[in-house]
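Milestone M4 deliverable, item 7.
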Amino acid sequence: MDDYTWQQRLRARRAQERRQLSLVFLLLAAIAGAMVWYFFFYIRTPEYALEQIQTAITEQDGEKFQRYVNSELLASRAYDDLTVDLFAYDSELTPKSRSMFEKFYIIIKPQLATGLENAALTRVSSGSWNLPDGTDILKGRQLGIDFERFIERSQIRNTTFVKIGKVEHMGRSATAEVEIKEDYTQTPFTLILSMEQAEDGHWQVSYIKNYKAYLDKISPLQNKDIADYIAATKSIVSESNEHFEVFQNHFKRLNSSKNGHLSKQQKYNIAALIEDDIIPGLQERQAQLDAVEVPAGAQYLARQRQQATETSIKAWQHYIKGLREDSPAEFATAETLHKQELAMDLRVQDIIRHTAISKNIPNLP
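Output delivered:
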């Protein structure tokens, strides 16, 4: 190879090395620019906050969720919309009664709004919905309402996220469209989230601007399905109630005792009544209910009836065991289960009553 050819190749190699070095610098600059954009700009956008909320729910990270959601304000605003919806179509409420209920819900707002917030945060951190327990004032109906039913009517347990839509920026405020779907009726809806920027630059969802509009759309759909289901099962329930009234009277007669103690024969007869009539009667009624097609929006009511039946059967089984083994522990278990079943029965009656008095629901398309 002569000197001229060697010099040419050397110059070409050096030019290629300079080009490669330039590309490396450009790539590093692009990476650095992307990192600067991400860490100094993107993480201070509403879009980033919405992504982090999704990640927090997926990873069950309650702390991260609370950083990007003002859960206290969100629950407070949602409570206001929800309590209006609770008796929005009640045809039996007089102006005086409506005013009384409004004042009542204002009084108990701190407890219920906090309960709503805690239920949602527990769902995020644990992946499951848990009801108040122990000495919690929201357990049962200590405040005069059924918190389980309250949560159900909020629709938060049966609403599925679909995707994030348009985000509009307005200085330190923003709105974000979030497409969702109501699980029972499969109804799509677009929620509009109000967002605010904190002092440190990160964004938070503060409240849902059109939450009441969502409730107004879903409630009539569910109520119509519930009304149809109640009508379809009315004869089954009526006939069953007649049979159980007979069983109840028989049960009372068998339990009659002058000294307050049941004889061996009485215990035998009571156990036979439960095993031969009451439990089979419960099973037969549930089988008939299960044979009825449940409209989409009435699934909760149907499930409550089913759970009440299952709990009642378990209670009676423990009662039988208590009779045969003379076991206070079995009687105590039976009583606990019976109270749970009564709570479900009362919830079912509340749903039926609410459907019956909601005569002013707007006509559905």
